[in-house]
Amino acid sequence: MEMKNMTLEVFCATTASNEPAPGGGSVAALAGALAAALAEMVAQLTIGKKGYEEAADEMKAIIPEAAALRAELLDEITRDSTSFNAYMEAMTLPKDTDEQKEVRRSAMQEALKKAAEVPLHVAVTAAKIMPMAATMVKKGNANAVTDGMVAAMMTRTAVLGALLNVKINLGSIKDEAYVADMKAKIHEIETAIIRDEAAVLAASPLK
Questions:
Q1: Can you tell me the distance from the alpha carbon of 128 to that of 76, in angstroms, rounded to the nearest whole number?
Q2: Domain boundaries in the chain?
Q3: Which residue intervals define the domain Cyclodeaminase/cyclohydrolase in the entry (predicted)?
Q4: CA geometry: angle 11, 134, 129, nearest 5 deg
Q5: Domain 22-202 has CATH 3.90.550.10
Q6: Residues 100, 101, 102, 107: what is their CA dihedral angle, to the nearest 10 degrees?
């Protein structure tokens, strides 16, 4: 069964088992999907409510965007879990000759890069939810402000959790230029998401 189609109980039980997947990367993607769902919910609860007429068009525009991100991140749950498979397969390649060893080494390195790029994509995708969460907290139905705040916190968790998986893969990649470029991207994304979450929570009327 595809992970996104599991019941919550089965997904949690499988995560808790000694199986390697789903793990932190898949849970990070799920956190992002839930953040998007919360943004959708607050938007739905705002449209048509008295006193929020001016925000209606913005809320209507956010709903399909959040829905698309939710769907994409749900797909990333499985993609993250299988992204390391190519590396495991590369490890099984023959290594009897120098030529075979080089082919194996190259395949392993390329697989590691791909394994790093999957959670990076999760982080970049999930980060797109933070502006939506900000809108929900600032302009959404005040009765659902905590849902907007949780969306912001879940977004931060999704982004930072995914980036941890990028970092652990970078530790085994020998391409120094590639690693430096990825580390720069990670730093930029981390800095922005931490700053933006703080701003959203600061904008909340709950202190």
A1: 15
A2: 22-202
A3: 7-187
A4: 40
A5: no
A6: 90
Among candidates 152, 170, 193, 163, which has minimal Cα distance to 25?
Answer: 163
Q: What is the pLDDT of residue 48?
A: 96
69, 63, 65: which is closest to 48 by C-alpha? 63
Q: Residue count of the chain, please give it.
A: 207
The residue to which tokens 């190519």 are assigned: 86
Residue with the larger pLDDT of the pair 37 and 79? 37
Q: Is the dihedral of CA 173, 175, 178, 180 positive or negative?
A: positive
Q: pTM score, two decimals? A: 0.92
Which burial class, exposed, middle or buried, applies to 137 when counting CB atoms under 10 A from its CB (0-12, 13-18, 19+)?
buried
Q: By the 8 A CB rule, do 206 and 144 touch?
A: no
**What is d(CA 114, CA 121) in angstroms, rounded to the nearest whole number?**
11
